[in-house]
């Protein structure tokens, strides 16, 4: 799909993207690169990183991969430092690394819960914390807003509740809090903008194959009328908007990019039936003498 943005919208900027070797993180890396940014991607698996860097470079994107686990502070520090050493500045940190699996609350061990909290919530904070000094420096004078940018990939699960996702719901609720609190503190002190994106179900990602295998996916529309799969491209375009100066006045928000999916409710009465029913109910209440209980009519 062709981008609606100018090809130089983030020209000369440097992006560090955790989980940038696959799924949504890789698409963000690709689109940032295609729009002029240099890209550092962080991930745990060397093979995945190497092939992602090769794919980016084959598109003419300046890219480098750094192995590391966001759960380890020393890895976070090393990767952020290496990115700075390699490129000389860092303009955006994207926290796209995440862990997930379907499990009922009853069957989830506390360590399983902690593992996802550690990757998604603590990992996001750790990366932000390590990147701060560079985002202060690196972003300085580059964005109209003054400082660098942070973008946290979240979810909509925790807006209501989600089956078999207690760990991720809790973790992403924390991520949204991190987004708002850092937007307040670092927006005030350093002009750093901190935003999030809450993707809906996105096709061709590790997330969707883990959380909505084909057999679930095909039935989803019956009980979630607004259910449709988005593309990784949709998330990357939202990320570009928030990264670029087009988003210079946006701070502390988590942009939902899900086609309205989280609002989805099964239609309990067909449209034609509701017309008739509604008129009949009105007529009944018009005809009802005042003060006479319905049971006496
Ligand atoms: N159901 C229930 N519990 C599970 C589980 C599952 N499918 N997968 C892992 N766990 C539990 C483990 O049993 C363990 O708890 P225990 O010690 O009490 O038994 C705990 O979670 C940690 O598992 P482990 O496999 O040691 O963690 P890991 O660090 O190797 O892997 C995961 C982390 C589990 C999040 C793994 O799925 C992962 O690496 N995911 C990254 C990719 C991803 O999920 N992408 C999708 C993004 S939406």
UniProtKB/TrEMBL annotation:
Reaction(s) this enzyme catalyzes, per UniProt: a (2E,4Z)-dienoyl-CoA + NADPH + H(+) = a 4,5-saturated-(3E)-enoyl-CoA + NADP(+); a (2E,4E)-dienoyl-CoA + NADPH + H(+) = a 4,5-saturated-(3E)-enoyl-CoA + NADP(+)
Keywords, alphabetical: NADP, Oxidoreductase
Enzyme class: oxidoreductase
Region called Disordered, residue ranges: 278-297
GO CC, one annotated term: peroxisome
Annotated Basic and acidic residues bias: 278-289
Matching Gene3D superfamilies: NAD(P)-binding Rossmann-like Domain (3.40.50.720)
Entry's EC annotation: 1.3.1.124
Alphabetized Pfam families for the sequence: adh_short_C2 (PF13561)
Entry's Gene Ontology molecular function annotations: 2,4-dienoyl-CoA reductase (NADPH) activity; oxidoreductase activity, acting on the CH-CH group of donors, NAD or NADP as acceptor
Record GO biological process: fatty acid catabolic process; fatty acid metabolic process
Name the UniProt record assigns to this protein: 2,4-dienoyl-CoA reductase [(3E)-enoyl-CoA-producing]
